[in-house]
């Protein structure tokens, strides 16, 4: 099994644009997901041709302008820090397109990719289009911004979601998995977690494990890390005093989020 926790390793792509993370099938145990994290200074640009991939461009922080050569989406992005805990804008672009991003201010961007054969319209997913929900109770509470849920018609394979977890809480909990192509009971979806912490020097713990424990890793995850979940359960624990943000990308053969709780821990949901 390839490693699961990836530290940011900044690499300059051009003047003003740094690639902080690049997770793909050649360096991770993934078949359906690719991820890039970009950091851009005002006025810098980034260009790419997609080929047989779809992408969701998430304006993590700052303001950016995006064009697919036909449409221009100007000054998108809503926040200076993810910990403002407000939704942001994103752009979905499908296969065989090229796109260009221009930073209108200092900006961080996450590019979420999946392989695809379907051509779909380019679309602006406005912050106001995100569905927002509170999940969990007791010490299992988190705030969720659904950017590309499985109910959205915009994507072929991609699912994208942001999750905020306050200190002292658990997230992706009770432990659940989605690694079996067994609908309607469970769907097969790979997943990645891009993590940020507030304050930045914090850390969280994330465990990735399977029923047979042939995969069982518990990781100390720091700001800017990406955790890869090719299969198995994947809970996150957040220490007191620090708040957690992560952006999830999921993709698989069927665009459906149907998870299976670890039966040893599912009783937690029935507590009174």
UniProtKB/TrEMBL annotation:
Catalyzed reactions per annotation: 5-deoxy-D-glucuronate = 5-dehydro-2-deoxy-D-gluconate
Keywords tagged on the record: Isomerase
EC supergroup of this enzyme: isomerase
Signal peptide: none
Stored Pfam families: KduI (PF04962)
EC number(s) given by UniProt: 5.3.1.30
Pathway entry: Polyol metabolism; myo-inositol degradation into acetyl-CoA; acetyl-CoA from myo-inositol: step 4/7
Keyword Oxidoreductase: no
MF terms (GO), sorted A to Z: isomerase activity
SUPFAM superfamilies cross-referenced by the UniProt entry: RmlC-like cupins
Keyword flag rRNA processing: no
InterPro entries for this protein: Deoxy-glucuronate_isom_IolB, IolB_Bacilli, KduI/IolB_isomerase, RmlC-like_jellyroll, RmlC_Cupin_sf
Family, per entry: Belongs to the isomerase IolB family.
Record function comment: Involved in the isomerization of 5-deoxy-glucuronate (5DG) to 5-dehydro-2-deoxy-D-gluconate (DKG or 2-deoxy-5-keto-D-gluconate).
NCBIfam families, sorted: myo_inos_iolB
Official protein name in the record: 5-deoxy-glucuronate isomerase
Name of encoding gene: iolB
């Amino acid at each position: 099994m390839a490693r699961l926790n990836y530290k940011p390793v900044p690499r300059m792509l051009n003047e003003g644009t740094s690639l902080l993370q690049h997770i793909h099938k050649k360096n991770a145990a993934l078949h359906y997901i690719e991820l890039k994290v970009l950091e851009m200074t005002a006025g810098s640009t980034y260009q790419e041709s997609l080929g047989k991939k779809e992408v969701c461009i998430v304006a993590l922080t700052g303001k950016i302008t995006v064009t697919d050569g036909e449409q221009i989406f100007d000054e998108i992005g809503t926040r200076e820090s993810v910990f403002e805990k407000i939704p942001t804008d994103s752009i979905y672009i499908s296969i065989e397109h090229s796109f260009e991003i221009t930073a209108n201010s200092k900006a961080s961007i996450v590019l979420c990719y999946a392989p695809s054969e379907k051509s779909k319209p380019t679309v602006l997913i406005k912050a106001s289009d995100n569905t927002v929900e509170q999940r969990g109770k007791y010490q299992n509470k988190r705030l969720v911004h659904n950017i590309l849920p499985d109910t959205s018609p915009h994507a072929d394979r991609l699912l994208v979601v942001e999750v905020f977890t306050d200190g002292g809480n658990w997230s992706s909990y009770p432990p659940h998995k989605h690694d079996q192509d067994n609908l309607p009971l469970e769907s097969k979806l790979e997943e990645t977690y891009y993590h940020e912490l507030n304050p930045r020097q914090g850390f969280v713990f994330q465990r990735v494990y399977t029923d047979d424990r042939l995969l069982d890793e518990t990781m100390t995850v720091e700001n800017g890390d990406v955790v890869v979940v090719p299969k198995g359960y994947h809970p996150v624990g957040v220490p007191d005093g620090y708040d957690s943000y992560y952006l999830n990308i999921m993709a698989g053969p069927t665009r459906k989020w149907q998870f299976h709780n670890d039966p040893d821990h599912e009783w937690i949901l029935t507590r009174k």
